[in-house]
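Retro notes (design track)

What went well: tokenization of the new backbones is finally stable.
What didn't: we kept losing track of which sequence belonged to which structure.
Fix going forward: every design gets posted as structure first, then sequence, in one message. First example under the new rule, 75 residues:
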């Protein structure tokens, strides 16, 4: 008789701002991180910090840019 179901998502999910580490109930997605396997995740910032982020479509694209180049020239 225990209701072990997880809490239903609230209307305003709170997220921690990746920049100022402040919890905000109005998170703004500033980056999307994609993994080769498995689901990716979003990077959130508070509305105050969000405008300070440059438009980065994929953070891993920047990190793996050099690597990807090498892989492209395997031979
Ligand atoms: Zn912030």
């Amino acid at each position: 008789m225990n209701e072990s179901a997880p809490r239903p998502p609230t209307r305003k999910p709170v997220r921690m701002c990746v920049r100022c580490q402040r919890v905000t109930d109005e998170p703004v997605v500033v980056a999307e991180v994609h993994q080769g396997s498995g689901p990716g995740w979003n990077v959130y910032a508070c509305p105050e910090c969000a405008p300070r982020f440059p438009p980065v479509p994929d953070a891993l694209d920047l990190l793996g840019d050099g690597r990807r180049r090498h892989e492209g020239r395997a031979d």
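Added context from the reviewer: The mean pLDDT is 78.
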